[in-house]
Amino acid sequence: MKTKEKKDPYVITAKQARSLMEPHKEKGKLRVHCMDNPGFAMMGYDVDLKTIMERLKKIEVDEPDQIRLAGPNMQSIQHGIAYWKDNQTGYVFIKTNEQKLEAFHKEVGVKFPKK
User: What is the pLDDT of residue 41?
Assistant: First the structure.
């Protein structure tokens, strides 16, 4: 008898990631705040929402387990989505809406980190 492989509750889809993001308008475009570590410190920057979604959709096809819920430290600063960028930078963290993220945690049965 085959055992059913348990899905990692921290792995999410591009569509789920989009539903948790908190984009803002800048010069008429929807953008989302991101953070990563290029090797010397955490840096924050804004990226077009369209660009982020293109990246996530590509990652979802190429490496489906690399879009994840971030850990408690990044979630505590409202950057609750992470995706693997490369071995130099590591993860990119995407700004999320705290209420939506907390509701999503309850939906998938993952404990939401408290501040």
Answer: 85
d(CA 87, CA 70): 17
* Residue 31 and residue 47 in contact, taking contact as beta carbons nearer than 8 Å: yes
Q: Which residues pair with 90 in a beta bridge?
A: 86
Q: ∠ CA 39-42-44 to the nearest 5 degrees?
A: 125
Give just the sign of the alpha carbon dihedral 14, 18, 22, 23. Answer: positive
**How does residue 5 score in pLDDT terms, banded at 50, 70 and 90?**
low
Cβ contacts of 11 within 8 Å, gap of 6 or more:
64, 65, 67, 68
Backbone angles phi, psi at 50, to 5 degrees: -60, -40
Please report the pLDDT score of residue 6 as a whole number: 62
Here the tokens at position 38 are 């290029």
For residue 77, the surrounding DSSP H or E stretch is none
Answering whether pTM is above 0.70, one says: yes
Tokens (6 digits) for 115: 């501040």
